[in-house]
Design goal:
single chain; Cytochrome Bc1 Complex, Chain D, domain 2; mainly alpha; 135 residues
């Protein structure tokens, strides 16, 4: 009986610690240095590229992140995490590589867009469009 109680305490503590670390991790989105340093291969100023990026954003991102990228899309209230503010200095200070990584890999409520937007160039065009949302 004593061993049984000891194991129950151990399991309870383990679950508690695991839950705490999971909560703690959700506040930061760690991007590997190698991903941060990836250079954007597309022309960031090309108007056609920006129009394509905006179109893809409207189709896949706008419902959660909103038209202006403030995190106020129609589905934002249904999500568990923060939708972010793409116009903020904090968001805009990230490298293109970091934004591409996040768009590609997703996490929590953010879907993995590697399959939904299968062409990497299209994901880069979304990154370019995100740059136009700064204030």
């Amino acid at each position: 009986m004593k061993n049984s109680t000891t194991w129950m305490i151990y399991i309870s503590l383990s679950i508690g610690l695991y839950s705490f670390t999971q909560f703690d991790q959700s506040t930061d989105w760690d991007v590997p240095e190698s991903a941060k340093n990836v250079k954007n291969p597309t022309d960031k100023t090309d108007k056609e590229n920006l129009a394509i990026g905006k179109s893809i954003y409207s189709k896949h991102c706008r419902s959660c992140h909103g038209k202006e990228g403030y995190g106020d899309g129609t589905k934002a209230k249904e999500m568990n995490g923060e939708m972010g503010d793409f116009s903020s200095e904090e968001f805009q200070s990230q490298t293109d590589g970091a934004l591409f990584y996040k768009t590609t890999t997703g996490r929590e409520d953010m879907p993995i867009f590697e399959k939904k937007i299968s062409d990497p160039e299209d994901r880069w065009l979304v990154v370019n469009y995100l740059r136009t949302l700064k204030e």
